Amino acid sequence: MVPRTDPLTLEVVELIGTVVARYHEEYEEAAAEHSLTGAQARVLGLLSHEPMPMRRIAQRLKCEPSNVTGIVDRLEARGLVERRPDPADRRVKLAAPTDEGRGTAARLRDSLHFAREPLAGLSEAERTSLRDLLRRMLGTD
Predict the structure, then answer these.
(1) Packing angle between helix 7-33 and helix 38-47, nearest 10 degrees?
(2) Where does residue 47 rank: exposed (0-12), middle (13-18), buried (19+ CB within 10 A)?
(3) Assuming Cys at both sites, which of 2, 48, 85, 86 could form a disulfide with 105, CB separation 3.0 to 4.6 Å?
(4) pLDDT tens for residues 18-64?
């Protein structure tokens, strides 16, 4: 497949890059306000949806399981995460947020305004269209 280099495609790629950079910048700032690294905040955010084993966290974040172990160790030391046996397989340990961890994850999410505020200015149909286009780009539609 030959990459598209027409001006519109190049502009869209540049805009996506700018959005991603701004999102990461705001995410890192919000994490720091909660005395977390960006990686710790991402793990805590993932776990706030559901407890999961280290391997799955690593797959979702596209990093090595040993990195996730260190991040979870630091979150556990702060009382934000705990390890517990997986009810489906007691040999597997799940990382799960504590009540304090869930609260921190919620406050972190609430402090991220970069994407949420501009999206609120779009109609529901525009947000739906944007979501569907992004899913299509990612191959998850």
Answers:
(1) 90
(2) buried
(3) 48
(4) 988 988 898 899 999 999 999 999 999 999 999 999 999 999 999 99
Q: Using an 8 Å Cβ cutoff, are 125 and 134 in contact?
A: no
> What are the extents of the domains in the chain?
26-110, 116-141
Report the alpha-carbon distance of residue 101 to residue 78 in Å, rounded.
9
Measured between alpha carbons, how far is 115 from 46 in angstroms, rounded to an integer?
Answer: 18
Q: Which two tokens stand for residue 132?
A: 């569907």
Angle 15-124-109 from CA coordinates, rounded to 5°: 65
Closest CA to 41 of 64, 12, 74: 74
Per-chain mean pLDDT for the chain: 91
